[in-house]
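Hey team,

Filing this mostly as a record. A colleague (T.K.) asked me to run one chain through the structure pipeline before their review meeting, and I want the input and output archived in the tracker in case anyone asks later how it was produced. No errors, nothing strange. Just documentation.

Input sequence:
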Amino acid sequence: MATVILTAVGTAFGGPVGGAVGAMIGQAVDARVLRGKGRDGPRLTDLAVQGSSYGAPIPRLFGTMRVAGTVIWSTELIEHATLEGGGKRQTGTTRYSYSASFAVALSARPILSIGRIWADGKLLRGSGGDFKTATRFRLHTGGEWQAVDPLIAAAQGLATTPAFRGLAYAVFEDLALADFGNRIPSLTFEVTADPQAVECADILRDLSGGVIGGATGVALRGYAGQGDTVRAPAEVLLQVGGAWLRRDGDRLIACSGSGTARALADRGAGRGGTGNRRFAAADQAPRAITLQHHDPARDYQVGVQRMRRAGSGGRDRAIELPAAVEAPVAKGLAAAALARMDIERERRTLALDWRALDVVPGDRVTIVGEAGLWRVTQATLEAMVLTVELIRIVRPATALPATSGAVAAAPDTVVGATILHAFEMLPLDDSLPSTPRLMVAAAGAAPGWRSAALQLSLDGGTTWTPRGSTAAPAVLGVVGAAPGGGASTLEDRASSVEVMLAHGGMTLADAEAAALANGANLALVGDELLQFGSAERLDDRRWRLGTLWRGRRGTEWAIGTAVTGDRFVLLDSESLVAIDLPVGAIGATAVVMASGVGDASGPAEARVVVTGDSLAPPSPVHLALCADAAGVPRLRWVRRSRQGWHWPDEIGTPLAEEREAYPVRFDGRDAATAGDGGIGIEIPAGAAVAEIRQSGTHVRSRTSTIRIDREISR
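Output structure:
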């Protein structure tokens, strides 16, 4: 009688632990599922590197996964030129920035949504859907009624633009590239294709076009299937799940250790006796298994779980699972795989009579009188005796205690709306601008804010001119308790100022007297410039500042004018950007507008009446009454300079103006213009109040006042 050998489709299609496909599957199933010249399934690294090669495979995503995708369309870099600075006798600087528009294919089956997006490893889009860099974004989920993207259609023509139905892809429009070295960054996406964990068998059913059915009992949080055949993904999915395939007509059924089992009794038919047991050598089983997977606790980066058994064994075995599973689940899968490869060294052979011909490879069976589950791997019919080969079944994997290790996740900081302040002040250095200058400081209402684009209007918002972007985020907020009055000539240890910073990520620090003398801790409080030596944190955002140096850099006129709710800005060169204005802007209202990523409700605005304070010399000081050699009363003073704030001993401050002149008024009436404070000016008889200013090259200083009876007032 002819011999018929039926071989089961094992844990792997043609792999080390599976059997040959043979006649069990049939030519139709073999061609539809297993064969073909397509590449095998993805390695874990395939999902982390963004590609753009023609013909690159697009994964079919299940559950929630992090993938890089493939760029399927892009523009050239778009250049944006912005003129900064410029004005009378000054040359402006043209700043260039770049953006790009492109589309990235994500999944070859429909998806539900996109979560976080990483660019060069840093978060571009947070878990709340907020972008950290300026861009417009659209997601096409891959449905069969998917419309053509309007940007791609505008660039290529509607008639030649595909809708990519069945393909999920994302479109970035004008993504600002300054944060990425003016190039398209390497992007990875957190993609949700299904609302919950997905059974391995359901994945195989989808990948095989319905040829594979059944259940494996193993659920994955996410999976990326890739390649033209099912062989590689099936091999891995069945292996980690401890499952195998059996034929059911023209379909294959995924089976596992759970479910009903048929009882077999060895009748000793044929071959002269009962069934036999044999064991492969111990070194045929691996000594340890290392399972690599995508760990959700590590932002879906690769995690590794390792299990090792006692005793001898062969070399270590590595399994790459392109799926998202938690560390305890991965460790349980590794432990089950290791136990299975050891236990499967035991094989049984049973001899049955011909009436057991309905026992086929892939069946789950028990042996009468013995404990344990077995599965049939091969059945041979010869001389009306059915000989079946059995292999032990290991119970399904269970989660084991495990850790994901140290996680260095990209911080998901909220950007927040832009907070903008613009004001006139003399430069922090000794430069001498020749046109009015606004200083701009900005930050966000949350720690993730980085910058905003600036525009300027001098006609009330009718027309706008781009003026570059903000500098580094400033430390700023509002006054909670104003410092009150004080003197600019003494260290103010009696007063303090409480400020409420914009968010808890901003900090202030103490400064010693030597640091203060070098300009440390200079802040704008309302209109007064002051320095503080002590900074005490009262809560997450509230600070108390003390040891004050008041009325700095010619702002003694503003001492005591600050009130609750006024601006507080810590001034330093890194957080300030200058906007030069035309000379004709003096007297007009300048409007500065800042647009940042977090300004969904509208850009921030700051309005400034241009007074020319940024060009004015400081007002004269040390006003005094004296008499000349003839006994005539005279008014004398000491000039200050906008080019020298340190007064070295026995060295005068530089004039820094085209000429030296001091308009003087007595009792509200103009008097002569003096040319030298050292010489002074004669005081008219009966005069009660004297007012003096210094004429600058462009504008006059603020007024210094003295009562003739030597009572100084402001």
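Quick notes for T.K.: The radius of gyration is 40 Å. Residues 1-32, 34-41, 269-273 have pLDDT under 50 and may be disordered.
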